[in-house]
C-alpha cells in the first residue's frame, strides 16, 4: 500500500498529513509561528502513531515547496530531504498556491469546473500570485491557468470570468477592488495546508511526478538569483 507523508511550514501554521491510495487521509495542523523546526517532527511522529503506520512504510515525502515564507519553505524542504534520504524514497514538491486552491474547492464544495485566484502576502508590498482551475471529477489535478509569480497587487490579474479569491494577499489594501468585487467569494483567511498537499501529491505519485531527495529545493519567486526550479519542472 502506498503511503505518502506531506509537510507544510510555508506560513504561520505547521501541518502534516498522511495519504494512501485507499483514501486514508489524516492531518494535523498547529499554529507554530517561529516554532516550525521544533514542532514538525513531533507532529509527524504523532500522525504516524494515530494511523498505525511506520516510517519505513512511507513511499514518498511531499512538501510545500513554496511560494511562502523563505524560512518556512526551507524548513519543509530540508526535513523532507532528510527523511527521504533516510528512507531511500522520492520527494514530491507541491505548490502552496495549488494546495490553497484545492482547500478552497473542498471547503466550498464547488460544482463542476471552478477557478481560484490564489494569493499570499509576500511582504514588501507584494503578493505571491497564481490562478488554478479544478474539475470536480478530478479535484486532485489542479491546473495552473497562469505561471505563479510575485508582483505588486496592482499588477494582479484574473483570467477566469468566474472565480473564488483566496489567501492573505486579498486582504492587502493595494489589492484592486475589482478582483474582490467580481469574485464569487473572497476567503482572505484561507492558507495552504498539508492535507491538500497530500491529495495533490498522491496524484503526482501515480503519474510519476517525483524527484530524488537531492532536488528537494524550495521555490523562490522573488529573488531570481537564488530561485531554482526543480529539475523535472524546468
Question: Can you walk me through this structure?
Answer:
β2 (13-20) and β3 (25-31) form a beta hairpin. The strands form two sheets. A five-stranded mixed beta sheet has the order 3-2-1-4-5, sandwiched between helices. The chain has a five-stranded mixed beta sheet with strand order 8-7-6-9-10, covered by helices on one side. It folds into two domains: 3-96 and 192-233, ATPase, nucleotide binding domain (Nucleotidyltransferase, domain 5, 2-Layer Sandwich); 97-187, ATPase, nucleotide binding domain (Nucleotidyltransferase, domain 5), CATH 3.30.420. α3 crosses α5 (194-206). It is built from five helices and ten strands. The two termini are 31 Å apart. The model is unreliable at 224-234 (pLDDT under 50). By secondary structure, it is of the alpha/beta class.
Classified in CATH, the superfamily of the largest domain is ATPase, nucleotide binding domain
Secondary-structure-based class equals: alpha/beta
What count of structural domains?
2
Order of helices and strands: EEEHEHEHEEEEHEH
Sheet with most strands: strand arrangement: 3-2-1-4-5
Number of strands: 10
CATH topology of the largest domain: Nucleotidyltransferase, domain 5
Describe how the helices and strands are arranged:
Layout: E1 3-8, E2 13-20, E3 25-31, H1 36-51, E4 58-66, H2 70-87, E5 91-95, H3 96-108, E6 113-121, E7 127-135, E8 143-151, E9 164-166, H4 177-181, E10 185-187, H5 194-206
Parallel strand pairs: 1-4, 4-5, 6-9, 9-10
Antiparallel strand pairs: 1-2, 2-3, 6-7, 7-8
Helix pairs in contact: 3-5
